[in-house]
Amino acid sequence: MSGVLIIGELLNSSRKKVREALERKDEGIIRTLARAQVEAGAHILDLNAGEMLEREAECLVWLVEVVQDELGEVRLSIDTSDPGAMEAAISACKARPVVNSVSNEASREGILEIAARTDAEVIGLPLGWKGMPRDAAGRLEEARELVSRCEETGIGRNRLYIDILCMAVGSDQTQGLAALEAARLVKTELGVRVCGAVSNVSFGLPRRRVLNRAYLAMMIAFGVDAVIMDPTDEGMREVLISAEALIGQDRHCLNYIRHFRKKGG
Amino acid sequence: MLEELKSAVLSGEDERAAGLTKKALEKGIEPGKILNEALVPAMEIVGREYEDGERYVPEMLISAEAMKAAMEVLRPKLVETGVQLRGKVVIGTVEGDLHDIGKNLVAMMLEGAGFEVIDLGVEVTADRFVQAVREHKPDVLGMSALLTTTMIHMPEVIEALKEAGLREKVKVIVGGAPVTQEFAEKIGADGYAPDAASAAEVVKKLLGVN
């Protein structure tokens, strides 16, 4: 098991396979994807039914129920901006859920209130107070505002993950480093954990998996605590285990050894 | 000369593209000819290569920058000689949505296809879209949304256009990751494009130009 929290991203309605499963209420596909991610090392499964539009709340609750029926008490991250859907899905969770996500946008106030009423962990996007931050300092400024808003509503720092807003380097090459530096800044300045979604970074570029893996190693080096990714990508797992060994987060490199002993190479 | 300009745009050399445009004008080549025989075909190639997966986002962006640099030199001359652009497009990302990569790519491809583009930026409310249509009288209004939570503003904008009596005066196109052909039809848009390159094609088809 790795020290970094892995949030599996595959149960997302923006993926065609999942959308079709939601439309047909096809439990098999959902069960397979849920189990595969947990077996590959995911600690938390992200659930998104946003593409179902007016049926979002109903589909999200159905996802929660199917995944729990398959895996029992598994931690789930409820990925919606609709307060009604959030409330319904959170109530259906057996294990401590993650609210994904709150931000400084006025439209997310409802989600913030729901999160405050539960014991859920919360992912916070550092944006929407002054706009979309373009550099590390901007992310820190938005994060500071968000942390204080969360504390005012009763969400302590220990329940919060600030998302570092990984963006496509293909369109702006400063974004890769900006998000990484933000991770370090937010952790040291605000004393709050950080998370990031790896695959955004490679949008519009060839061999996205290669870039994602390189970026994952850097995220680990910059202290990112939770990563939203495809845990079934074996290359990603190898990078994760290697990166942790390299920065002294794998005592005696035992986790690395255990993973690779039989494989050689 | 025009072939050289075309290749400068294709390889994304902005200074060279601007310099060659200036030289072409000095040599007495008509501004309309420079636009239609170098810049537009170059961007058509860029769009095709992007669609075929041979060209990637950064390569598309630098070509668009080169095209822009050439257009800055060319635009005053085009106006002087009264060359008509192919049409006018107002474009923006909808309310609550801060994503601009896709919208910017579409704007660049449209400019590259010889359209005048007025970019309203991100987080554009229905009121601002309506106001821009009233003010600029565009042929096409383009809306982008990257989130399932913001694409719901698209039908609101179409409704607001109807209320303002402007719906019949402008074609509406929509795009962005969560948007589908089905969604576009459901909300009564005139066109949908899955990516930036095909957006230019959709606009051309809607306006009957090629």
Structure description:
The complex is a heterodimer of chains A (265) and B (210). Chain A has an eight-stranded parallel beta barrel with strand order 1-2-3-4-5-6-7-8, surrounded by six helices. Chain A has one domain (5-260): TIM Barrel (Alpha-Beta Barrel). Chain A has ten helices and eight strands. With 265 residues, chain A is of the alpha/beta class. The model of chain A has no long low-confidence stretch (mean pLDDT 94). Helix content of chain A is 47%, strand content 14%. Chain A has helices at residues 16-24, 27-39, 56-71, 83-92, 109-117, 136-153, 175-190, 208-221, 234-246, 254-260; strands at residues 5-8, 44-47, 75-79, 98-103, 121-125, 160-163, 193-197, 226-229. By secondary structure, chain B is of the alpha/beta class. Chain B has two domains: 2-80, Orthogonal Bundle (Methyltransferase, Methionine Synthase (B12-binding Domains), Chain A, domain 1); 88-207, Cobalamin-binding domain (Rossmann fold), CATH 3.40.50. Chain B is built from nine helices and five strands. Chain B has a five-stranded parallel sheet with strand order 2-1-3-4-5, with helices on both faces. Chain B is globular, with a radius of gyration of 17 Å. The two termini of chain B are 24 Å apart. The chains are: A alpha/beta (265), B alpha/beta (210). At the A-B interface, loops of A face helix 4 of B.
Concise structural overview:
Chain A has 265 residues and is an alpha/beta fold. Chain A has helices at 16-24, 27-39, 56-71, 83-92, 109-117, 136-153, 175-190, 208-221, 234-246, 254-260, and strands at residues 5-8, 44-47, 75-79, 98-103, 121-125, 160-163, 193-197, 226-229. The model of chain A has no long low-confidence stretch (mean pLDDT 94).
Characteristic key phrases:
heterodimer; A: 265 residues; alpha/beta; TIM Barrel; 8-stranded parallel β-barrel; 8 strands; 14% strand; B: 210 residues; Methyltransferase, Methionine Synthase (B12-binding Domains), Chain A, domain 1; Rossmann fold; 2 domains; 5-stranded parallel beta sheet; 9 helices; 57% helix; globular
